[in-house]
Amino acid sequence: MSGKVFAATLLLSWLAGVQPAMAESPKVQPPPNAELGIEKLGNEKFRIGNVIVDKAARRFSLPARVAHTTDPLEYFAVARGGAKEYESLLELDATATQFQLASILIGLDDARSVKPRYQFDERPAEGPAVDIRIDWSDEFRSVSITASEALMFDRKPITSDEWVYTGSVTEANGQFMAETIGSVISFVHDPFAIIDHHSGIGVGKYGSITGNGVLLPPVGATVTVSVSLNQQDKRGEASKPIEPRE
């Protein structure tokens, strides 16, 4: 089942002015302690917890912490408290559900996505193409790099910047697996992640992918992660952004 079903049910309940208790949909239950709290900011902008969504620009951003740079990595980012934090470059200051709701608001749709069948699946992942950037500032400068520039393979920069929205998976019992595991942005073809790398730059390369310590701020530093629809790449296509009811 599509991971979008779970988050869309919550989102549509909010758009209709209904509290997302899911009383009418017993098979779809919100995750424990899910922080939804969608706030309208005006000018087609919304806040979902710490996630800021710009629907018109088809982009959202959120804070994150640099978690690991020198350790072997399999994830670009996990949700706050995610189980795979120990092998992730970043830990997002948001839940997977909040990230999924933001994705839906900017029009990302997994209807045509080809999700990994299992972790380390060698088949390419397909879906709407997205651009991912990391931004931060210190007392001397402001820096903005792509997700791939933040990673290294065998101590060499990665040039493949092909990230696609796959939408995670919702089990038959309504369990949204990205929320359960905390997988958000993977590069090893994790079927439970919300975004993955098209070719899977970490598949078959365990221990070879690390953070780019030359470019990145130190572990523990706060950065901003932004995700936007790549409107030049028609891979998987995307739907129109959801129109929140005024």
Task: Provide a short characterization of the protein structure.
This protein has 246 residues and is an alpha+beta fold. It is built from three helices and 15 strands.
Derived structural class: alpha+beta
How many domains? The number is 1
Mean pLDDT: 86
Major β-sheet strand ordering: 4-6-5-12-13-11-7-15
Largest sheet: 8 strands, mixed, barrel
Percent helix, as a range, is 10-25%
Low-pLDDT parts are: 14-34
Radius of gyration: 17 Å
**What's the number of helices?**
3
The end-to-end distance, rounded to whole angstroms, is 30 Å
Strand fraction band?
25-35%
Count of β-strands: 15
The SSE string, one letter per element, is HEEEEEEHEEEEEHEEEE
Q: What global shape is seen?
A: globular
Describe, in plain words, how this protein is organized in 3D.
The structure is a single chain. The protein has helices at residues 3-15, 96-105, 177-181, and strands at 38-42, 45-48, 51-54, 59-66, 75-78, 88-92, 129-137, 142-146, 151-153, 156-157, 163-165, 183-186, 195-197, 209-211, 222-229. With 246 residues, it is an alpha+beta fold. The protein has one domain. The strands form 2 sheets. An 8-stranded mixed barrel has the order 4-6-5-12-13-11-7-15. A 3-stranded antiparallel sheet has the order 10-9-14, with no helix packed on it. Helix 1 crosses helix 2. The longest helix has 13 residues, at 3-15. It is globular.
